[in-house]
Design brief:
Layout lengths: L1 H19 L6 E4 L15 E2 L9 E6 L10 E8 L3 E7 L5 E4 L10 E7 L8 E8 L4 H41 L4 H15 L2 H13 L5 H23 L6 H14 L3 H27 L6 H9 L3 H15 L2 H13 L5 H23 L4 H21 L3 H11 L10 H27 L3 H11 L7 H6 L12 H25 L2 H5 L2 H29 L5 H38 L5 H27 L2 H30 L3 H5 L1 H29 L10
Parallel strand pairs: 2-8
Antiparallel strand pairs: 1-3, 3-6, 4-5, 4-7, 7-8
Helix pairs in contact: 2-3, 2-7, 2-17, 3-5, 4-5, 4-12, 4-17, 5-10, 5-12, 5-14, 5-15, 6-7, 7-10, 9-11, 10-11, 10-14, 11-12, 11-14, 13-14, 17-19, 17-20, 17-21, 19-20, 20-24, 21-22, 21-24, 22-24
């Protein structure tokens, strides 16, 4: 009897062991769709409170040799919200288990753990994350996307403006000095855009340099290609998943921005604050889009984006709408971080973003100068031709990117693997495309420049269009003072060229009694006054922005230089022009020697204006010091000429006697014009010494 009881107990124990203990080497996995290789286990799906989820939770059990394990019991437990046992399910002949789950009445995240029944704790188990939302979940998703995108754009804008404020002045100096060679131009364009985080800002600088004749349009093509490479740095930074440190960057940036005393540290803090807001915005968007992982219509739409033409269209339209290729690239990477996008779907979107940023530039060029329109057209041609050449080779291009990027070099990986590696691959695709574009088009930049000029030839401009209205002062650039100052500088140079022409023409009425020239000088002085007023108002508006000490001194210097040129125009109109009219009315003439002296001094005066323009354009201290030395010699020369004139009067030379008053006042006016020109050089020297010098009329 006892022996029989013992045998029965042993049999029961064996049966319990068979049904409760897992077979050796069994492993539990999320179920993957064998057709697509993508996650199809019900992970991440969205449900409503108290309602059964639309898809059951599915898992597969495999033995140590990778074969399906049928007849294995799998336990499902809810661990949040709350914690309780849900039930058991047994794997089918394919080793697959399916278990329906009903959501609790709480609209919050649900966590379900599946484990092989009887397995050791911590082993042979997987976790399902489910979202339970009320019927208004779409509204909250839109709120999250809109708020996250706003933070992203605000952070990028803050970072870009701070970088331009701190480095814009040096960047424009580098651009103007190092763009003679097209290869150097690519490097400079990439470096400048990488620092100031704005290809549009780089383009604005290029336009101003072309209009100021500091460089030719053909030279800008290399810089444009380089600027496109520089924009890819933003995508590379975004691909580093730094969202976990976003709040730390925001805190540190805030402390520096509002706690530091030095402007450089404050600017650095603002850059860090913007960088943190950028990544925090990405985190908000990523969190908002999480429910979409199980929303089939959205997943179907993303699958459709693997159609290259549709992807390019979507990328182009969205980039044009949000006015930032970097922002849309960031959105693409956020989608990839959720495992939504394959590389084949991300590449057309990247191509569309590259075209979309050209549309933004093209819209900005409407109504702008011919040079600005040419720069925008060249930018567009580069991008459109590049995309059209690559769209037919997207699978090959994707294989190339995989081969040089971390992660698997094959398609069909799980959603988790895609979320880990696709963002970096998309960023690399963006970089490879733009670098390849530069390498292909660089040898043909001169040819493309000629093509653009042929498409957009120079158009004739009337004198009123050219001189009366400021052409370079763009109010939209006020947010970037370094760029606004550059535009003001170009306009001041244009004003100075006008004044120089007036000074050259001022002698003609004294020699040939040309009254028409006197009328022209008067009209031109009115135009100089109008430009002076526009430039001064523009500089005052810049001065109201948040400026560094160096920029504040530059504003003061530019206002002073503008006023010097305006003083020269006033002397020509209000003093020299009446003298010429008086000479014509009296039918007076200079003596032969007196005329030679006036002409000689006039040439020296005009050269001094030319030096002033050159010194101001290049910021040349050597030329500014040379001007000061020249002015001392010119003052002495004018005194010598004055003594020589008195000697001719003493000898009773009739022409000298008749024109004496006009001769002396004209020479004095030319000396004063030379002095005002010299003040431009002194202003440059004053700025270099970080102080304000006194400007005297010698």
């Amino acid at each position: 009897m006892i022996s029989t009881l013992r045998s029965g107990l042993f049999l029961v124990f064996c049966l319990l062991f068979v049904f409760t203990a897992p077979a050796a080497g069994l492993t539990l996995h999320h179920y993957l769709d064998p057709g697509t290789g993508r996650l199809a286990s019900g992970e991440g799906q969205l449900g409503k409170p108290g309602v059964e989820f639309s898809e059951p939770l599915m898992a597969e059990v495999r033995s140590s040799d990778g074969k399906p394990a049928p007849g294995v019991t799998v336990e499902f437990d809810l661990v949040a919200p709350g914690a309780h046992f849900l039930g058991l399910a047994v794997t089918d002949s394919q080793g697959i288990v399916s278990f329906p789950v009903t959501a609790t009445n709480k609209a919050r995240a649900h966590t379900v753990v599946a484990s092989i029944s009887g397995g050791e704790q911590g082993q042979d188990r997987i976790v399902f994350h489910l979202q339970v939302r009320s019927g208004s979940w779409v509204i909250f998703l839109i709120f999250g996307l809109a708020g996250g995108l706003s933070l992203f754009l605000f952070g990028m804008n803050m970072m870009s403006k701070s970088l331009q404020r701190s480095a814009g002045g040096r960047m424009r100096a580098i651009l103007s000095a190092l763009t003679v060679n097209r290869f150097v131009g690519v490097a400079v364009g990439a470096g400048v855009t990488m620092v100031i985080q704005s290809s549009s800002a780089t383009t604005v600088m290029l336009v101003s340099f072309v209009q100021a004749r500091l460089m030719t349009f053909a030279q800008t093509t290399g810089v444009i290609l380089g600027a496109d490479i520089g924009t890819t740095v933003t995508a590379q930074l975004i691909a580093f998943k730094l969202t976990d440190y976003a709040l730390l960057m925001i805190a540190c940036g805030f402390l520096l921005r509002y706690g530091a005393k030095r402007p450089r540290w404050r600017n650095g803090g603002e850059v860090l604050l913007g960088f943190g807001l950028l990544f925090f915005g990405m985190s908000v968007m990523s969190e908002a889009m999480y429910p979409l992982r199980s929303y089939q219509p959205f997943l179907n739409l993303l699958t459709d984006l693997e159609n290259p033409w549709l992807g390019i269209l979507v990328g182009t339209v969205f980039t044009a709408l949000i006015q930032s290729s970097s922002a849309f690239t960031g959105i693409i990477i956020v989608l990839a971080q959720q495992g939504f996008l394959s590389l084949e779907a991300g590449i057309p979107l990247i191509f569309g973003a590259n075209i979309g940023t050209c549309i933004t530039a093209a819209l900005a060029a409407i109504g702008a100068s011919r040079e600005a329109t040419r720069v925008a057209l060249a930018h567009t041609l580069f991008k459109v031709f590049g995309v059209l050449a690559m769209v037919w080779w997207i699978p090959t291009f994707a294989d190339l990117v995989r081969s040089i990027s971390p992660g698997p070099d094959t398609v069909g990986e799980s959603q988790a693997v895609m979320a880990r590696f696709i963002p970096r691959q998309i960023a690399n695709a963006h970089t490879v495309f733009n670098v390849g574009l530069a390498l292909v088009f660089l040898p043909f930049t001169n040819l493309i420049a000629r093509l653009v000029v042929r498409i957009l030839p120079d158009r004739p401009e009337t004198a009123r269009e050219y001189f009366y209205k400021a052409r370079h002062l763009d109010k939209d650039m006020m947010a970037a003072p370094a760029l606004a100052l550059n535009l003001a500088k170009v306009e001041i140079l244009r004003l100075g060229e006008k004044v120089k022409t007036m000074a050259i023409d001022s002698l003609e009425p004294f020699l040939d009694h040309n009254l028409e020239m006197l009328d022209r000088l008067h009209r031109e002085e009115d135009k100089v006054d109008a430009l002076d007023e526009q430039i001064t108002d523009y500089l005052v508006d810049i001065g109201r922005q948040e400026l560094s000490e160096e920029q504040a001194r530059e504003v003061y210097m530019m206002m002073h230089v503008t006023k010097q040129f305006e003083h020269i125009a006033d002397i020509i109109d209000k003093q020299i022009r009446p003298l010429a009219m008086k000479m014509v009315e009296n039918n007076a003439e200079f003596s032969e020697t007196g005329q030679a002296e006036v002409q000689s001094y006039h040439i020296k005066m005009c050269k001094q204006i030319s030096r002033a323009l050159e010194a101001f354009r290049d910021g040349s201290l050597d030329l500014a010091k040379r001007m000061s030395d020249k002015q001392r010699s010119y003052v002495a020369l004018e005194e010598n000429y004055r003594q020589a004139h008195f000697q001719r009067i003493h000898r009773a030379i009739s022409e000298s006697v008749a024109s004496s008053e006009i001769h002396l006042e004209l020479m004095d006016s030319y000396r004063r014009i030379s002095s005002y020109s010299t003040n431009v050089g002194r202003a440059i020297m004053s700025q270099d010494k970080f102080g304000n010098a006194e400007y005297e009329d010698e």
